[in-house]
Amino acid sequence: MTLLPQELIRLKRDGQALPDDALEAFIAGLTDGRVTEGQAAAFAMAVFFRGLSLPERVALTRAMTRSGTVLTWDLPGPVLDKHSTGGVGDTVSLPLAAMVAACGGYVPMISGRGLGHTGGTLDKLDSIPGYTTAPDVDLFRRVTREVGCAVIGQTPDLAPADRRLYAIRDVTGTVESLDLITASILSKKLAAGLQGLVMDVKAGSGAFMARTEEARGLAESLVTVANGASLPTRALLTDMDQPLASAAGNAVEVTYALDYLAGRRREPRFHAVTVALGAEMLVLGGLSPSLAEATARLEDSLTSGRAAEVFSRMVTALGGPADLIAAPERHLPRAAVVRAISAPRAGRVAAVATRDLGVAVIGLGGGRTRPQDAIDHAVGLTDLAALGDEVGPERPLAIVHARSEADAARAEAAVVAAYRIGGDAAPAREAILERVG
């Protein structure tokens, strides 16, 4: 007999194992509306505190995958993707999809909106005028085939149960659940019909899993569950003790990604993570025999301009402006108030409360506190100081982009509080911490 939603919640609340068919029925109810938002929130909280066993994780992931359409592909190259567990200034997906496509891969990348203090790729893309972030499946397939990549949001057909649970987790304090993160990420990737997946699992002050040990546990969970579901997967642990890029927001991160593709700015840490993930994707897909050869091909996709060309074609095919890379200032929204945030004193940046910078962007209107909240795509932070930078009269902590002076003042206070200037500091970690799988 199928368990009622409240009975399934009670079982997990009390630390008991959930039968596969009960999870299947609960996820079906989440999809068709028979499970209420309150019940979904209670389920998420019960899982957060009690956890799921590996068999439960696999069952939940499979149920969420089967809640909608599962794509199949017939393409002349491997179908590959990357996913990040999220951080501040992590806009890697935008250039990476185009770089891998320029090297012969096909990247149907289904992205999410902002979750907790982190920015979402889909919210960033929504700042591009005309860009269709929710195309129908036929358009998604066509752009992937013709261009080589399509970065979109979840369509109504793909893992719809995850879309609903994702929004509820964002506002109920259950974002950090290893089990729910695993099922959320992998249900979308399995539904996309991938042949290879590389995970970017963040660790540090701006990551959901702040401790490296916790991040490693998530990486191992993702790799184990994905490979168990016949999706070849590897993971990299990467550092989030400081923003990955010097920009945090939506339009400002799109601008950063465009500058990266065009060669106007390539910061070393961002570049290292982007190329390392891409190299893993090319090797996993059989497009390169070694990480060294894959790295060289990715570097060439940038210097030759092929990656920028692929990205421009994707934007145009999905309804955006053809000259976005050449002239982002013509198209991306800009904030009314733009000003520097001075350091409280001169000195070297010793530590960054990276999560607090993400929260500051939300406070500006660049993220959500409720699922239905609108986002101001123009606001954010740029020129963020990195660990070890000398700050003072000639080098501010950041530049704030706000819709009002009052918003800018609040963000300034938050940014100043997030930085520790001077004193003893541990050396900044390498951008790539370790490899899993």
UniProtKB/TrEMBL annotation:
Pathway in which the depicted protein is active: Pyrimidine metabolism; dTMP biosynthesis via salvage pathway; dTMP from thymine: step 1/2
One matching Pfam family: Glycos_transf_3
Any single GO CC term annotated in Swiss-Prot or TrEMBL for this entry: cytosol
PROSITE patterns assigned to the protein according to its UniProt record, in alphabetical order: THYMID_PHOSPHORYLASE (PS00647)
Keyword terms: Glycosyltransferase, Transferase
Reaction equation(s) it catalyzes: thymidine + phosphate = 2-deoxy-alpha-D-ribose 1-phosphate + thymine
Function text: The enzymes which catalyze the reversible phosphorolysis of pyrimidine nucleosides are involved in the degradation of these compounds and in their utilization as carbon and energy sources, or in the rescue of pyrimidine bases for nucleotide synthesis.
Family: Belongs to the thymidine/pyrimidine-nucleoside phosphorylase family.
Subunit structure as annotated in this protein's UniProt entry: Homodimer.
Protein name, entry field: Thymidine phosphorylase
Organism the protein comes from: Methylobacterium indicum
